[in-house]
Every structure is written in C-alpha cells, then in structure tokens.
Amino acid sequence: MKITRWTGLMVCFLGFSIQAMGQASSSQYLPGIKQELLKEWPKNRSINLVFHGHSVPAGYFKTPVVNTLGAYPFQVLKSLKEQYPLAVINVINTSVGGENAEKGAERFEKEVLTHRPDLIFIDYVLNDRGLGLERAKVAWEKMIQMAQSKGIKVILLSASPDQRVDILDTKSVLDQHGQQVQELARIHQVGFVDSYELFRTQVKAGTPISEWMSQVNHPNEKGHALIATEIMRYFK
C-alpha cells in the first residue's frame, strides 16, 4: 500500500497525540522547575516541594520513631542540593500518619496549596485499602484537579510494601490501588513513581523484602532510598 506524505504526517501526528495523552515523561515533565533550579542569585527564587500523604513520607520508621532525615522527602532534598547547589529548595511535609486520601483531600486547600508549591507529591495508597477503589479515586482526582487548577505540577506514588501482603501477587489490593493511581496519572498527564514495583524488582532479584523494611509497613532508610532515587529521575 502506498503511503502518501500527508498520510505519514497524520500517522506521526496521531502517534504524538497518543503519547502526549499518557502519563508524564520523567525526562520532560519538569522543564520549568529544572530551569528555576539552575538560576543563580539574584535571579533565583525559592522552589517549594510539598510531600503529602501518610506515615511513610511523614518519616515513621519503627513506630513511634520518626526519622525525618532518613525518609524519602529529605533524601530527595539532599540529592537535589548535590545536583543544584545554587538553588533554594524548601521541602514541606504535610503528611499525617494513619491518614488516607479522603482525609488528605479534605485539608488539601488549607494545608497544601497554602504553601504555594511548585510541585506536589501524593502518597496514600498504603492507607487507601480501607476506602476501597471508588472512594480513593474520587479523593485522588480531587487533589490532582485542585493542584492543576493552580498550575501546580503533581507526581503520584504507588504504595511502599506491607509485609502482610505478598509483593509478588500482582492481583493484591495494593496492586489494584497502585494501578488505579497509575491510570489517574495517565488520564491527567501527571508524573508517576511506581514505588511498589521498585521493591518487587528487588524481591524478584533475590533480596528479601525484610531487608528494605523497618517494621511491617514502614520502609527503612535503604527502602526510602529506592523511592528517592526513582523520584530523582524527574530532575535529571
């Protein structure tokens, strides 16, 4: 079959459109923020990163110990400062231990958007099991849409592990919620970090899940580093 130049252009255009409708590319999602991080004084400004979620981003390790500097939000800050030494970066943690996405959505405007973030990370999958998929979806979409209405970039995260759930079971409730969050990232064209898959890959490679955990449902510092390293792909 002969393909005309016009047909070829249409195919390219359609291919681009389909790609554009997908989940945000880690290499292309934050060009404006990365440019701001490179600016020198006096042309630079403070960059505000807000981490919103439950006990894991809040820094709970072995309850009630909160290891703030070992948790992934501050591991990300450390890596960012190594990569962007001239930048002024604020990490603001609005996470609350034990909270689910509905509670997070209720306080999103007053406790998250009030910080005028450049970028918001949302991490609630681990605690959303009690809500069920439909209620969780409504809450996640509410937060995404509120952020996007203000022109704020968003990166969603799937769950970190719970050792009571077989991480190799791809049909578990944690996987179902993670897949839903990934689909929301695709629909709304925001970033997505598949934390759960990072840990699953390590287990498949032969490292027991216990080596990445401080207690049954909280990663240790090494586990948090897995998540932080994946987040940093958005800043390369």
From TrEMBL:
<protein>
    <submittedName>
        <fullName>SGNH/GDSL hydrolase family protein</fullName>
    </submittedName>
</protein>
<dbReference type="GO" id="GO:0016787">
    <property type="term" value="F:hydrolase activity"/>
</dbReference>
<dbReference type="InterPro" id="IPR051532">
    <property type="entry name" value="Ester_Hydrolysis_Enzymes"/>
</dbReference>
<keyword id="KW-0378">Hydrolase</keyword>
<dbReference type="Pfam" id="PF13472">
    <property type="entry name" value="Lipase_GDSL_2"/>
</dbReference>
<keyword id="KW-0732">Signal</keyword>
<dbReference type="InterPro" id="IPR036514">
    <property type="entry name" value="SGNH_hydro_sf"/>
</dbReference>
<feature type="signal peptide">
    <location>
        <begin position="1"/>
        <end position="22"/>
    </location>
</feature>
<dbReference type="InterPro" id="IPR013830">
    <property type="entry name" value="SGNH_hydro"/>
</dbReference>
<feature type="domain" description="SGNH hydrolase-type esterase">
    <location>
        <begin position="52"/>
        <end position="226"/>
    </location>
</feature>
